[in-house]
Structure formats: C-alpha cells, structure tokens
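Field log, afternoon session.

UNIT: design team B
ACTIVITY: writing a sequence onto a fixed backbone
BACKBONE:
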C-alpha cells in the first residue's frame, strides 16, 4: 500500500507505557533504535512525512536475490472471504476472536470497475479497494498478504483463538471493499483485528510501520473508543515484529518509531473493535523485497504479529 496524499495526523496524547514490553525492547535494541524504545516509554511526538534520522539494518533470513520469489507454502484451513469462522480451541486465547484482513486481492487487477466504486468511510468517500503494489520482479502485495495471513492464522489457532479472515484464497474474486472489511471485524465483535500490507515507496525507503487509527467522529465513523486499545495493540505488535524479524522501523515515516496515525483509511475509520494496519516493509526497496519474498522471513513476520496480538489479548 503506497501513500498518495496528506494522510498523517499527530497521535493522541497517552499515558507513559510501563511494563515488560519496554524493558524487553530496551534489552534487545541497542544503538540507533534506542530512540524508539524511549519514545514508547515516555509517549513520543507524532509522525510526519519527514525521513527518520534513525536507520538500522534488519537481520536478513532471505536470499540475496529477490528476482525469484519463493513459493507460498501455507495452506488455508477454510474459506473465510465472507467472515466465516475457523474453530477456536483450548489455549491462552480460548474464547478470543481475531480478525485477519489480508490487504487487497489478486483478483482486483481484473475488476477495475468494481474496485473503483466509491464507498463511504465516514470522513469522505474513497475507492472500494486498490490493486496494491508489487516487487520489481512482480511478486504482488495481495499474494504476500494472503500468505502471511495464513501463517498468522495457524499460529493464533494454536493459541486457541477463533480466527476470521476477510478474504481467503479465491473467495471473494475481488475486494472486499474497505467498508466490508471493517464490517466483518465489527460483526464478529473481534477482540483484535489486523490488516496486513506491504508498502510501495521509493528505493532506499525501507522498514516496517504499524498504522494506528486516529480519533474520528464523522458520519458512520466513530473511533473514539478504540483509539486507546488500538494504540496498545499496535505498540505491542511493533515491538514483537521488530524483535522477531529484525526489520527496522520505517526510515521514511514515523520518525523511527514504527508507528503512524492516520484518519483516511476506511478499514480503521469504520472499525468498532481494536484494529491496526501493518506495513511489513517496502516492496520497491531491494533489501526489503529480498525479505518479503522469503518464506522463512514471512514466517517470522507472522510470528511477530502473533506475539503482539497474544500479548495484547492476554492482558486485555
């Protein structure tokens, strides 16, 4: 998912975070990224378009070349394009519901008319969906997000969670629209929801960032009750994603914090449950694309998201 306009807003003031996450990050993240740990400990300032002064190298588990993406190796355990359940079980997340939203859809490329229709996102009207981005070698964001979503679903189900997906495999053939994606999470009364993406910025722009919902109260959108818990969810996911993947926080948005607040995304604006987006890396950067096309790294990405979600749900 790439940026096309003035989409950033200063995060709402919040109380300083305390507890094991900050301590763990401080132990794990020396040097240039220490500023991110400090930001999370004291509640730092808002993100903007400026490039971050902090830039660090992620630990790569990928091949040195991104020209031949590895084969997606996760198999769906059920179709959930219409928000159907996959059974929960016993474990620390028994009774919890998680909605996973794999961004975009491979079929969107063949359904331009449908995905260009406008939907109401509260603050304005916006396209139903987009095609997403891809690596220079043609590995699409839609394919990436679905693979990571399958891996994440498996991990969460092992923890006992009931998992719903907004799309799965070829169902539906395109979309769903961004308002429908939010509706699936709301109808499920999800305890947590995550929308998985990868960015399409310039070469040299790299790193991950987690997008948090800003405070919106307009039309059908009212995020005021979820801003706080969504920030907690996003902060935990960002910390565990950094730890598990070695991917640095974005060096082009978020001032090195790995966190960005936006009020222009229908999937967040229309959510009534704690929800975040994650941009796992930049598909147009050669270093990041080498990671994103690695099955081993995608497993680490799913693990980072799972660890953050589990941490949030066990304390919520």
């Amino acid at each position: 998912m790439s940026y096309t306009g003035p989409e950033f807003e200063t995060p709402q003031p919040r109380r300083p975070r305390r507890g094991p996450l900050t301590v763990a990050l401080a132990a794990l993240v020396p040097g240039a990224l220490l500023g991110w740990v400090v930001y999370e400990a004291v509640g730092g300032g808002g993100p903007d378009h400026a490039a971050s002064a902090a830039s660090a190298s992620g630990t790569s588990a990928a091949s040195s070349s991104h020209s031949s993406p590895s084969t997606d190796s996760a198999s769906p355990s059920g179709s959930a394009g219409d928000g159907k359940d996959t059974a929960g079980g016993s474990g620390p997340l028994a009774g919890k519901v998680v909605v996973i939203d794999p961004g975009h859809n491979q079929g969107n490329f063949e359904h331009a008319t449908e995905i260009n229709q406008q939907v109401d996102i509260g603050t304005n009207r916006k396209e139903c969906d987009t095609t997403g981005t891809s690596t220079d070698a043609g590995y699409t964001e839609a394919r990436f997000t679905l693979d990571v979503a399958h891996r994440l679903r498996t991990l969460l189900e092992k923890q006992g969670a009931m998992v719903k997906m907004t799309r799965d495999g070829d169902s539906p053939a395109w979309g769903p629209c961004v308002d429908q994606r939010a509706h699936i999470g709301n109808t499920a009364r999800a305890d947590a929801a995550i929308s998985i993406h990868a960015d399409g910025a310039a070469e040299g722009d790299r790193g991950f960032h987690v997008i948090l919902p800003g405070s919106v109260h307009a039309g059908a959108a009212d995020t005021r009750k979820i801003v706080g818990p969504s920030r907690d969810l996003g902060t935990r996911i960002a910390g565990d994603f950094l730890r598990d993947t070695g991917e640095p926080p974005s060096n082009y948005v978020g001032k090195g914090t790995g966190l960005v607040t936006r009020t222009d995304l229908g999937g967040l604006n229309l959510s009534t449950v704690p929800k975040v987006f994650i941009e796992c890396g930049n598909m147009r950067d050669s270093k990041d694309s080498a990671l994103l096309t690695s099955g081993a790294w995608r497993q680490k990405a799913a693990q980072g998201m799972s660890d953050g979600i589990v941490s949030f749900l066990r304390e919520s």
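LOG NOTE: The first strand starts at residue 85 and ends at 86.
NEXT ACTIVITY: expression trials, pending approval
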